Amino acid sequence: MSTVILLLVTGLGLGALYFLIASGLSLTYGLMRVLNFAHGIFLTVGGYASWWIAVRLPIGEPWRFLIALAGCMVVGAIVAAAVEVSLIRPLYRRHIEQVLVTVGLALAFTALVQGIFGPDPISYPAPGWTQGVTQLAGANIPNSRLLAIAVAAAVFLLLAAFLRFTRWGLIVRAGVENRSMVTALGIDVQRAFTLIFALGGVAAALAGALGALYFGNIDPQRGTATLIFAFIVIVIGGLGSFTGSVLAAVVVGLLQQFINYYSSVYWGFSAAGDLSVVLLLAVVLLWRPQGLLGRSVG
Which pTM does this prediction carry? Predict the structure, then answer.
């Protein structure tokens, strides 16, 4: 039973990381119909920014980690807004060019990070309390997993409140429903676009920092690897569906964790969880092409 509890919580922790990066993708697609293949660089930026700040601050924990976390969020927002203004904004109605530019940016940025920091993983200076465990129903749960779940839950509540109760949230939701009408009413949709990109950058940067705690290190390829599963999450949940991304992230994280563990124990095949996620994607697309909570387009 303790093994099941451990896998359940660690799977939720992995799903929390997927949600943090997928939430920005879901919002940008829902409002702007932009599939940003460079979104993974915001995760990479967050991981390296938090590491860079943490190893240079001459103060103790937990303040060093909290400042590093806040710093990575600021950097993620700035980088995301800069990408939207300089590269995405001129290409809103040119979808092929969007794909080419964002894929090229992702490849170039990964090469840049490798050139500066090297291709090998760098150990992350995790606070001592995140390396400890918490007893839950006989299972020793790593505190880093609990932290990822708590932060993802807080981000979900804050984004949901933003979308529901603020003026900019109203503009975003209206833009998802009818972008042309919002523009015709004289509302500056471009500022909403930049704001959503910045919020997506903040969430992805958080995923980078928390992912560094989850895995114990940072490396230039993690943003790309995590982005693949984030795309699977938003497709399963329904393109443009924020709530669908939450549901799909939980399902994907749990499925991947449980299948990886039991297939490794009984069959010695440690990649079965990744394969099962791809098979789930295929099943969902065949059964419900618009995703679990997406809208039908026909």
Answer: 0.89
Q: What residue has token string 């920005």?
A: 24
Per the structure, the complete domain to which residue 216 belongs is given by: 2-220
Give residue-wise pLDDT tens across range 222-280: 888 888 888 899 989 887 778 888 999 999 999 999 998 888 877 767 778 888 898 99
**Tens digit of pLDDT for each residue in 40-99?**
999 999 999 999 998 888 877 778 889 999 999 999 999 999 999 888 888 877 778 888
Q: Which residues are CB-neighbours of 271 under 8 A, at least 6 positions away?
A: 260
C-alpha 72/C-alpha 67 separation (Å) is: 9
Residue 142: which H helix or E strand, with range?
A: strand 139-142
Cα 193 to its chain centre, rounded Å, is 18
Q: For residue 268, is it within any domain?
A: no
Residue 203 in any domain: the answer is yes
Residue 270 lies in a domain: no
Instruction: Tell me whether residue 10 is in a domain.
Output: yes
Angstrom distances, CA of residue 273 to CA of 59, 251, 253, 257, 284: 40, 12, 9, 7, 17
What tokens does 192 get?
């909403």
Say how far residue 91 (Cα) sits from the centre of its chain.
23
d(CA 53, CA 105): 24
Number of domains in the chain: 1
- Give the amino acid at 176: V
Six-digit token pair at 214?
């989850």
Task: List Cα–Cα distances, 15 to 175, 220, 221, 222, 229, in angstroms.
Answer: 28, 21, 19, 15, 10
260-296: burial string, b at 16+ Cβ within 10 Å, e else: bbebeeeeeeeebbeebbeebbeebeeeeebbbbbee
Residue at token pair 């990886």 = 260
Question: What DSSP element (H or E) covers 147?
Answer: helix 143-165
